[in-house]
Amino acid sequence: xxxxxxxxxxxxxxxxxxxxxxxxxxxxxxxxxxxxxxxxxxxxxxxxxxxxxxxxxxxxxxxxxxxxxxxxxxxxxxxxxxxxxxxxxxxxxxxxxxxxxxxxxxxxxxxxxxxxxxxxxxxxxxxxxxxxxxxxxxxxxxxxxxxxxxxxxxxxxxxxxxxxxxxxxxxxxxxxxxxxxxxxxxxxxxxxxxxxxxxxxxxxxxxxxxxxxxxxxxxxxxxxxxxxxxxxxxxxxxxxxxxxxxxxxxxxxxxxxxxxxxxxxxxxxxxxxxxxxxxxxxxxxxxxxxxxxxxxxxxxxxxxxxxxxxxxxxxxxxxxxxxxxxxxxxxxxxxxxxxxxxxxxxxxxxxxxxxxxxxxxxxxxxxxxxxxxxxxxxxxxxxxxxxxxxxxxxxxxxxxxxxxxxxxxxxxxxxxxxxxxxxxxxxxxxxxxxxxxxxxxxxxxxxxxxxxxxxxxxxxxxxxxxxxxxxxxxxxxxxxxxx
Length: 483
Hints:
Endonuclease, Chain A, 3 domains, two-stranded parallel sheet, 17 helices, 17 strands, globular, transmembrane
């Protein structure tokens, strides 16, 4: 046996020696073939010319490794799999009629409502009660709702910490399971790793049914590493919902908090749309089909609302198009609060056009960000908006993770989505569009309360910025398609 192994090894060595003069040519042929293959695939599958150009440049300038990165991060295989499992139907309601749909009170929002309806294939629901909550209040109300549940609890989140915030939720869910409540928990595959050990083992040890969205530690089994489920919502007894930007993490409830956020409690028919979105994600993750009928009352408040599911599957570009439509509908004022603001050129140009027609644009972003490169790129984009007349405010710590937009004191959009390429193109997001003077007034009031503690950044502040910082920000912005 040893003689055979020795003889085989010598044979391999001889072949390698014979091929040695040809290795540079073979390597060049392989790298060129990979680059050509990726270029063809990019040109046929990428709708964003800038992203296509960036990937093409990468695979030619970084041979082999660039193609490997594209295979892991650039190929969207999720759309095909989502269509196979759900048929793209579970999150839509094809039976609703435009003629029967309620319309916003203000005329210039009626066309916006019709447009978003055609985009999402979901009706605008009437009779909703939507209560904005800061993170500690939202966390406590979610815990109370879990404790009082008697039929079902469906919870989806990006990050579920195995910490002082996550453990009480696990214990409450376990008690719900023990009293016969149907519990389903969906955690993103990457988000579940923010705490080690992961909270998933604690959930399973307590017999709480849990799935991880697109999870695998094996790279060859993980072709979706760049596509994350960023949605955060909970539906209790198919009649009460919670959604917004809040993850389940200790930083929200510690004293003093290290992070703040905006979440909302939902009551009314729009909860059925949260339920449909969760059911689609759950079916995608494990193949189980859940009951999606809303059980609550039809008339609980005055808010007209609609859920907007967005992602790199059948829902591609829905959120981005909604934002463009809302900016175009504005007549007086647009207010945006977001932790990550690196929009594409089209969104920037649409905001600029709004300002040119006299619309006031106010943006609030954190003064200190947890993602430095995103913050630098954001400052570069914001510099141009400020030069066109936008008002920019930098919020002081704690880190504000809220994601909300109001238009003309009537339209509100809140949820999980940010203003960056990841949220607009890669992540699975869920946002809520609402039509209500009262709700918009409440949200605008909370924005007004935080403005005195913010630092205003005007053109002079950008002009006085150190030259090396401006260069740093501009270089970071070159990475916008990847941020």
